[in-house]
Design brief:
By secondary structure, the protein is mainly alpha-helical. The chain has 13 helices and two strands; from the N terminus they run ααααααααββααααα. It has a two-stranded antiparallel ribbon with strand order 1-2.
Length: 239
């Protein structure tokens, strides 16, 4: 069972024809095409927080070039930021289906959106896949240092291990898998001791199990590392 089938419970084409790098003439035709122009109009609208116009342009681009996975990734990102979580999930899914590829950051974003709609079981699966894919990339010597964190249109392209583990820990906490949550928080802290959300989720975990002293300590650590919600949570429970 491949990762796509594991998450979505349905199959996709096993192999896809490799798309050759376009020569100069082909590249010029692409840049001059209407779908390319609408993609860039959509990205420009997105950059101005005009989500409605951005979606309109991406819809036009997809009608003109329905088999281009990047278009669905960009539209998914726009839908995610506009609050249409179900729509984002469907577009990330379509992007994976068309491309036939598995990029871990796409599965991470699927986890984020499943968590937002409280589909915790699928959120965990998506995070599991993302962590496995990134671990495999690291084990085979894959380097991400030179890659951007995001692509045009807000598409998340690179995610650090600490964030992957902390987000999965939060999903496990929601499922009351307290040991699993603690394990992932520890992995996140080991991956990046300065990532504030690891300590924040740990603090929430200790609140859940009524260990207030530890909860306060971890929330203060999150606050000291710049977590935006930590101060409000401390004031709510301890001040």
């Amino acid at each position: 069972m491949d990762n796509y089938q594991r998450l979505f419970k349905e199959s996709r084409p096993v192999t896809k024809e490799e798309v050759p790098f376009p020569d100069y003439e082909t590249a010029m035709k692409m840049v001059d095409s209407e779908w390319w122009k609408n993609l860039n109009r959509g990205i420009s609208s997105y950059d101005q927080d005009d989500f409605n116009s951005a979606i309109t342009y991406l819809n036009k681009a997809i009608r003109e070039e329905p088999e281009h996975p990047q278009l669905y990734s960009v539209r998914a990102s726009i839908k995610e930021d506009s609050g249409d979580r179900n729509g984002a999930i469907q577009d990330y899914k379509k992007s994976l289906y068309i491309s036939g590829e598995d990029w871990y950051a796409t599965y991470h974003q699927l986890g984020v959106n499943y968590f937002a709609i409280k589909d915790l079981a699928n959120a965990i699966i998506a995070y599991d896949i993302a962590i496995e894919l990134k671990s495999k990339l690291a084990a085979t010597g894959g380097k991400e240092d030179m890659l951007p964190n995001t692509l045009p249109g807000g598409v998340v392209f690179k995610v650090e291990f600490a964030k992957l583990y902390a987000n999965r820990a939060n999903a496990k906490l929601a499922l009351k898998d307290f040991q699993g949550c603690a394990d992932d928080c520890n992995k996140a802290i080991k991956a990046n001791p300065d990532y504030s959300n690891s300590y924040y989720v740990f603090g929430l975990l200790f609140l859940h199990i009524s260990q207030d002293e530890k909860a306060y300590r971890f929330l203060k650590m999150a606050e000291s590392k710049g977590h935006k919600q930590a101060t409000n949570t401390i004031n709510q429970y301890f001040e």
